[in-house]
Q: What sequence folds into this?
């Protein structure tokens, strides 16, 4: 597959002198490669991405248009999309799988400098690193304002409050096909409790209409950031971005950055980190330039969106497990157990979390 990445560059882009190419390991959805090319007597790195075959073309159009909008607004922490010779920002690879024809998309991005310090399950985060991440999330939301989807561009996945009700039908299908692995048995045991939590996380329509929406990253975690010293200098993996509730993106970030994975408090949120992230994000928002600090209504529903965010991540775990031919039962059991523990903890702590939000400084 690395050779295919090289062929894509030499055939569709003005990059003929390839010096080195290697695959980046650790991703769950897409395949990525770092390619070094020689241009005008200097070496330049690029990130070449082969998208998950389930990705639809309109999702690429949305992602790439959003990235271009951010850069146009002066947000420098995102890798720009490199246009190919024809001017398009992606390449379509047509493949045959049995009797079925599929299209796989490739794109080339600028290579972001900085250090990959964390994975998405690594929450042993230095305070300064987390403060920077919270501030940059507010900057990202500010730069994304006024984005308009171009024709034919959109995320296939519905907004979170439209997505949650779809779990019931999907989980019924998985319940019927579940085998005898530990994951299967755990899923069967807890399916109904997950669906009950989904019902409790749904926001009434009259209030939902009043909650601010904007372009969100939808996967903002420590593993998708690059650091230099104690500052975030790069954000990547915008392929899940869409228009949704601002507090959904914030809730996802809080679940990712503040979750405890190990030891006695595993399956909870570190409330000191939670307060620090929330205070930093709010302080970085601007009433004048926008987005404004969290509104009273957003504060009221943030505990609900924490629950929804955890259910969203757990949904990825379940869907991914039942979409793969040979999933790693141990790895996915770790993710599922964590999500279930956190689901119960958030439900038990909703009132307490709500009081933290209303404390001075938040």
A:
């Amino acid at each position: 597959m690395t050779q295919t990445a090289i062929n894509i560059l030499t055939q569709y882009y003005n990059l003929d002198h390839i010096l080195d190419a290697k695959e980046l390991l650790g991703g769950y959805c897409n395949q990525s490669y770092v390619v070094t090319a020689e241009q005008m007597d200097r070496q330049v790195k690029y990130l070449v991405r082969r998208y998950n075959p389930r990705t639809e073309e309109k999702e690429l159009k949305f992602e790439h248009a959003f990235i271009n909008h951010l850069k146009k607004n002066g947000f420098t922490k995102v890798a720009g999309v490199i246009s190919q010779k024809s001017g398009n920002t992606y390449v379509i690879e047509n493949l045959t799988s049995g009797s079925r024809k599929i299209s796989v998309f490739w794109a080339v991005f600028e290579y972001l400098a900085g250090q990959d310090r964390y994975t998405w399950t690594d929450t042993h985060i230095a305070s300064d690193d987390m403060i920077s991440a919270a501030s940059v999330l507010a900057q990202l939301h500010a730069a994304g304002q006024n984005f308009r989807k171009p024709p034919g561009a959109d995320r296939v996945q519905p907004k979170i409050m439209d997505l949650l009700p779809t779990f019931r039908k999907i989980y019924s299908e998985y319940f019927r096909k579940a085998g005898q692995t530990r994951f299967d048995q755990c899923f069967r045991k807890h399916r109904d409790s997950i669906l009950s939590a989904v019902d409790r996380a749904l926001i009434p329509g009259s209030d939902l209409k009043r909650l601010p929406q904007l372009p969100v990253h939808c996967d903002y975690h420590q593993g998708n950031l690059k650091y230099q010293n104690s500052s975030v200098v790069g954000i990547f993996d915008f392929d899940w971005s869409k228009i949704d509730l601002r507090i959904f993106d914030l809730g996802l970030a809080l679940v990712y950055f503040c979750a405890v994975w190990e030891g006695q408090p595993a399956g909870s949120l570190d409330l000191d980190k939670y307060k620090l992230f929330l205070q930093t994000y709010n302080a970085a928002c601007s009433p004048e330039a926008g987005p404004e600090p969290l509104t009273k209504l957003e504060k009221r529903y943030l505990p609900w969106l924490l629950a929804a965010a955890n259910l969203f991540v757990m949904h990825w775990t379940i869907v991914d497990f039942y979409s793969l031919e040979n999933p790693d039962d141990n790895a996915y059991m770790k993710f599922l157990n964590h999500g279930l523990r956190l689901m119960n903890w958030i439900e038990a702590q909703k009132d307490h979390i709500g009081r933290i939000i209303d404390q001075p400084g938040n």
